[in-house]
Amino acid sequence: MATTKDYGLGEHTFPRGWFMIADAAKVGSDKPLPIRFFGQDFALYRGQHSGKLVMLDAHCPHMGTHMARNSTSYVAQDGPIEGDSLRCPYHAWRFGADGKCNEIPYSPGPIPPAAKVRSYPVVESLGAVFFWHDPEGGEPDYRVPFINEWNDPAWVAGAYDDLGLVNSHPQEVIDNITDVAHFGPVHGSRTQFFENEFRGHVAVQRMGGGHRTLIAEGGPMLITEAVYHGPGVLITRMSGLYDSYIIIAHTPVDDGSTYVWHSLMVRTSDGKPATDADRAAARQYQDVALAAFAQDFEVWKYKKPCIQGLFVQGDGAFRLQRNWYKQFYNPRAKKQELLQTVEGVHVPRGMQPAPDTMRAESAAQLRRMMQAA
Ligand code: FES
Ligand SMILES: [Fe+2]
Fold it and tell me: Which coenzymes or cofactors are required (predicted)?
């Protein structure tokens, strides 16, 4: 397992950015969800009547109990969430959404001010719970990942496929955005054009070609535009058989391990509001996309870390991409300096660039993403 330091990414162990931390459908008000990201444990739940998302440090300040990893205590069995508060399973101290202890059932004395845990703001978008992680404690400098068609009834949003924990540093996942040479061997594509563009917090891959997993031999050309909305969320627009978006979210768990989710949104074939048949077809298409992603995932699962890489001509802009990724591991003050050498469009040797029309559409989207920052 290689760490952030091994890759020489920067001063911070974990990157700044918006990160998916849970499938929103899995967060309820019956019990807190235990989650671990950025080397820390949290308890995530919804307020009982408010539905409000609350994320607290998992460990109780009284005696260190993990408040979301208990099923046998009567507090846990009877329902530890009361309104927006969470009760610890060990001695039943109760903490509000602000993290402050608001009841110690057996103690006649005042509640000590130190009886509190940290509470973290989280937001819901794309059916997921997102957390803004910033080692410097700053406010978000770009908008939470989004898809304009999210509320469009002619689009079907799939559930999240939980790929789970992989003992690879997120750098290995990010590398995929520049990896032009894997498309043929892994996905059976005959790549006809390929380019990357880096702008601010956004990295783009524009690609056109065949794809044996997603489209059968002799089918239409698959055109994809994969966009990193910051360091943790990749949204890929695909046109081929159907208009769709693939969402791949990955979040650091410990230094050198990553949690990964996959989902897909697809437009109904007639552009009318989705029916049950559309939803079934969408799930089938998501399974095909998942099979394509599993082809990448299997490699990551067993590979050795690529610290340097023996890159050759035609390999894609790996070094520039890794420099782009460094902006998230360094103080914001260094961001412009890091971006100076990487911003722009990069076409690998021997490849065709994306058609002008595609690049123009993409430019409009990029402008919107930058404005929202
Ligand atoms: S350890 Fe949490 S109430 Fe005692
Ligand atoms: Fe791939």
Answer: Fe cation
